[in-house]
Specification:
mainly alpha; 14 helices; ABC-2_transporter-like; membrane; transmembrane; transmembrane helix
Length: 262
């Protein structure tokens, strides 16, 4: 099965980089969003600080947000959704390949195609804007490790969203809702620390917070080593939990699929 996963991931990777214009646009759009955020927060913070963020640390926060969002939105949600909407899922059921594993390989393969551009964009942003450095070499290493969990987390959330197509027979509204929740509750739009306490509690109770707030908190030293390891453990738990939930929901929804009237 590992060879099949690798083959599917490779195909998705090649398909992603084949459409260079779309790929480049997604990176540039993220870059413009980062520039807009830098302009706004520079005006708001000035020489002071907000929510424990001074200007240098906010620059680091926004650059990390650019990196994580570029990765998180690089997967092909519509490829998964269209397999359900177009009825191709009925063909998938006849194949000796696990549907969830196959979609995960394709999704993560597509995400991998964005890694070089995301890293390059991040390096350019660091050189131009000179953000705060990591709290320590260990914090930098733990931040890099935490970023790896964006791949299974992004797939898990997107997979659950696309499974809704079995019921709704539409995906556009679901995608908008999913993307909005990720952007808001990850802290990409507004740092979690600036939200009301009750809203912070809701954010930390969901997996979205680990896309931006977790790596930024580790990088800036807003949590100690034990706290950083706890956040990474939470990421791993969410990745496993989303996979299991997706599997359980699939088993129920697939019963509704009709193949040749059967």
């Amino acid at each position: 099965m590992a060879s099949v996963d690798l083959a599917l991931a490779t195909i998705a990777f090649k398909r992603k980089i084949a459409y260079k214009t779309t790929w480049l646009f997604s990176v540039l759009f993220g870059g413009w969003s980062m520039l807009a955020g830098l302009a706004v927060w520079n005006h708001l913070i000035g020489d002071g600080e907000i929510g424990g963020y001074d200007w240098d640390s906010m620059k680091a926060y926004l650059i990390i947000g650019f990196l994580t969002s570029t990765l998180a939105w690089a997967g092909s949600d519509w490829d998964m959704a269209n397999r359900i909407l177009d009825g191709l899922v009925s063909i998938d059921l006849t194949k000796p390949v696990d549907f969830q594993r196959a979609r995960a390989a394709e999704y993560i393969g597509g995400m991998t195609a964005s890694v070089p551009a995301a890293i390059l964009g991040t390096l350019i942003a660091v050189l131009v804007f000179r953000p705060a450095g990591p709290a320590s070499p260990l914090a930098a290493a733990l931040t890099a490790f935490s970023l790896l969990f964006i791949f299974p987390l992004a797939f898990g959330i997107s997979y659950l969203a696309t499974l809704c197509c079995f019921v709704t027979q539409r995906f556009l509204g679901i995608q908008w809702a999913k993307d909005s929740m990720v952007a808001f509750f990850s802290g990409l739009m507004v740092p979690i620390a600036l939200m009301p306490v009750w809203l912070q509690g809701i954010a930390w109770a969901m997996p979205f917070v680990h896309f931006t707030t977790t790596p930024a908190s580790i990088y800036l030293g807003r949590v100690d080593t034990a706290g950083a390891l706890g956040l990474i453990a939470a990421e791993a738990a969410w990745a496993a939990g989303l996979w299991i939930i997706g599997r359980l929901i699939w088993r129920q929804l697939v019963k509704k699929v009709t193949i040749h009237g059967g």
